[in-house]
From TrEMBL:
<keyword id="KW-0285">Flavoprotein</keyword>
<keyword id="KW-0274">FAD</keyword>
<dbReference type="GO" id="GO:0005743">
    <property type="term" value="C:mitochondrial inner membrane"/>
</dbReference>
<keyword id="KW-0813">Transport</keyword>
<dbReference type="Pfam" id="PF05187">
    <property type="entry name" value="Fer4_ETF_QO"/>
</dbReference>
<dbReference type="GO" id="GO:0010230">
    <property type="term" value="P:alternative respiration"/>
</dbReference>
<dbReference type="GO" id="GO:0006552">
    <property type="term" value="P:L-leucine catabolic process"/>
</dbReference>
<feature type="region of interest" description="Disordered">
    <location>
        <begin position="1"/>
        <end position="65"/>
    </location>
</feature>
<keyword id="KW-0004">4Fe-4S</keyword>
<comment type="function">
    <text>Accepts electrons from ETF and reduces ubiquinone.</text>
</comment>
<dbReference type="GO" id="GO:0051539">
    <property type="term" value="F:4 iron, 4 sulfur cluster binding"/>
</dbReference>
<keyword id="KW-0249">Electron transport</keyword>
<dbReference type="InterPro" id="IPR049398">
    <property type="entry name" value="ETF-QO/FixC_UQ-bd"/>
</dbReference>
<protein>
    <recommendedName>
        <fullName>Electron transfer flavoprotein-ubiquinone oxidoreductase</fullName>
        <ecNumber>1.5.5.1</ecNumber>
    </recommendedName>
</protein>
<dbReference type="InterPro" id="IPR007859">
    <property type="entry name" value="ETF-QO/FixX_C"/>
</dbReference>
<keyword id="KW-0408">Iron</keyword>
<dbReference type="Pfam" id="PF13450">
    <property type="entry name" value="NAD_binding_8"/>
</dbReference>
Length: 630
């Protein structure tokens, strides 16, 4: 029987004012509402309420920040809600908007901004709400990131004047690593970054949220959308946030608050890769019928402060080869940011076969390579994190529209894998969905109809189409994959008359332990390489110790009856945060212990578990990592 035990507690600094929507100045309301009905004014957000009495007025350490945050946030909602927006029931409150967006990432915020732009241009009233499960916008955003500005130029042409630009890309290198050497390779055309910027996507997302608020969007961080709501006809009518103050045993604690129903005429899901609500609507509406399965990779990242003498602003290095074997797809990135900072990371495709492989440990081995270690020696790690990303490309994009809403951004999967970019395509998908939704609402239809056709006619579809065969070609191994990539890039230029399908779903790729070779990883040196818990402490990750575990086992007996004897406990290795570990229980038997407190919200467990017995669900709002520079 698995136990749920979160023993590793990290106590971040908590400031209530940082987790609430900033006050905005709204233009005078337009003369009429979108469909001619009596106009519902957008909510004018007042200044932040005073901090709760159990916290000092400045940022201070608190053993349990979430109750204070919830009280402050609910107080803000009560102060700003108009009677026409408030429909109280004995169970839970309800808020009503024209458009509800789940996820304040690049796709969700771009969609929100575009909706408000269209409303202003048409002199219409349109209420848009964005929900974000992180304590503040950007806190759950992790990416490389070399930013391609194409979509941002379309959305906000003057963005360079105020956005956190980072540093402009200066030069690209692509290398093949052996255990102790590196060999330069030609940089593929998709990986050339002239005109792009090395940024922190977490910082850029926070800036984008500010632009959304200035445009009239209501952004609510700290609210985890946990449930889809449906009308009697089966169409989506909105989402509900999870209940707050539920103990591990399921009982209601003193600070219990029921969730809130947030109803929208149209709902856009922008949860990122492997979203829990996305999975629900894909199943309910059959969005994957006739489509290939999605494939994923796990990306691990650190941001270092290095010796200024070693820093080369704008330098970009990607590698393949070591420490991966020739059958496992993966590689590294190393980006020289501003202020003598370096973003370094390693990406491992989750269709790897060996259950003894640990993506975290492979990242440590990469950092110890002779071509990498000298850069990091004498430096300091500022932040660590991990997140899964979509790799399926064009073949794995599901049907994008459903009754009452649509999938946008990485919830659908628009990452251009050969280019190692997905932010620009995510943004553009959100913008296209916004345009389709606005046109439908003007015509009185609560729908995103036409969004998928707009996407197919856009540069997003063209860009993904020409690279569609590159990533699936690596299912045959590294060397055949490189040969196929060269063919597609330099000979057919993406116009091959065939389309390569993906192999097995990631969880089915795992071999039984008896068929795999054990991997002995070196001990960390504490200078360049580290153990998981040391790294985890640099992510700011925190959850309430006494909250209902958000990592759900469909069958509690599977870990001990299947995963342990057949695969030798793979969940203890594929997780980059030591959430899952087997400990000795009574009579010397080993049992799975779930350290939910450690969860980075990477979703690797939901994807890679061989029996698909682990289901990742959203925890209480505000929990998880606290990324600031990733």
């Amino acid at each position: 029987m698995a136990t749920q035990q979160p023993p590793h507690h990290f106590d971040p600094i908590f400031c209530p004012s940082q987790h609430l929507t900033s006050p905005v100045t709204r233009p005078p309301p337009p003369s009429r509402c979108l469909t001619g009905r009596p106009r519902c004014h957008n909510l004018a957000l007042p200044a932040h309420p005073s901090p709760p009495s159990d916290l000092p007025p400045n940022c201070s350490r608190s053993p349990d920040p979430r109750p204070a945050m919830l009280r402050a946030t609910r107080h803000l909602l009560r102060r700003t809600r108009l009677p026409s927006r408030r429909l109280c029931t004995p169970a839970r409150e309800q808020l009503s908007y024209d458009v509800v967006i789940v996820g304040a990432g690049p796709a969700g915020l771009s969609a929100a901004i575009r909706l408000r732009q269209l409303a202003d241009q048409a002199d219409e009233d349109l209420s848009v709400c964005v929900l974000e499960k992180a304590a503040e916008v950007g806190a759950h955003v992790l990416s490389g990131n070399v930013f391609e500005p194409r979509a941002m130029d379309e959305l906000l042409p003057q963005w360079r004047k105020s956005a956190p630009l980072g540093v402009q890309a200066a030069n690209d290198r692509f290398v093949f690593l052996t255990e102790d050497r590196q060999f330069p390779l030609p940089t593929p055309p998709q990986m050339k970054n002239h005109g792009n910027y090395i940024i922190s996507l977490s910082e850029m997302t926070r800036w984008l949220a500010e632009q959304a608020e200035e445009a009239g969007v209501e952004v609510y961080p700290g609210f985890s959308a946990s449930e889809m709501l449906y009308k009697e006809d089966g169409s989506v009518r909105g989402v509900a946030t999870n209940d707050f103050g539920i103990a591990k045993d399921g009982s209601k604690k003193e600070n219990y608050q029921p969730g809130i129903e947030i109803v929208g005429r149209v709902s856009l899901l922008a949860e990122g890769a492997r979203g829990s609500l996305t999975k629900a609507v894909e199943s309910r509406f059959g969005l994957r019928e006739g489509k290939q399965h999605q494939t994923y990779a796990l990306g691990l990242k650190e941001v270092w402060q290095v010796d200024p003498a070693k820093h080369e602003p704008g330098k970009i290095v990607h590698s393949i080869g070591y420490p991966m074997d020739l059958q496992t797809y993966g590689g590294s990135f190393l980006y020289h940011m501003t202020e003598s900072r370096v973003a370094i990371g390693f990406v491992v495709a989750l269709d790897y076969e060996n259950p003894y492989l640990s993506p975290f440990q492979e990242f440590q081995r990469y950092k110890a390579h002779p071509s990498v270690r000298p850069l990091l020696e004498g430096g300091e790690v500022l932040q660590y994190g991990a997140r899964t990303l979509n790799e399926g490309g064009l073949q794995s994009i599901p049907k994008l529209e459903f009754e009452g809403g649509a999938l946008i951004g990485c919830a659908a999967g628009f990452v251009n894998v050969p280019k190692i970019k997905g932010t620009h395509t995510a943004q553009k998908s959100g913008m296209l969905a916004a345009e389709a939704v606005f046109e439908n609402l003007k015509e009185g239809r609560d729908s995103a109809q036409g969004y998928e056709e707009r996407l197919r006619q856009s540069w997003v579809w063209d860009e993904l189409s020409v690279v569609r065969n590159i990533r699936p070609g690596f299912k045959y191994g590294l060397l055949p994959g490189l040969a196929n990539a060269a063919l597609e890039s330099y000979v057919t230029r993406g116009r091959s008359p065939w389309t390569i399908s993906h192999g097995h779903p990631d969880h089915l790729a795992t071999k039984p332990a008896r068929e795999a070779k054990q991997i002995e990883y070196p001990k960390p040196d504490g200078k360049v390489t580290f153990d998981i818990l040391t790294s985890l402490s640099l992510s700011g990750t925190d959850h309430d110790h006494d909250e209902r575990c958000h990592l759900v086992l469909k069958d509690d007996s599977v870990p001990e009856k299947l995963n342990l004897p057949l695969y030798d406990a793979p969940e203890s290795r594929f997780c980059p945060a030591k959430v899952y570990e087997y400990v000795e229980k009574e009579a010397g038997k080993m049992a799975l212990q779930i350290n939910a407190q450690n969860c980075l919200h990477c979703k690797a467990c939901d994807i890679k578990d061989p029996s698909q017995n682990i289901e990742w669900t959203v925890p209480q709002g505000g929990g998880g990592p606290k990324y600031t520079v990733t």
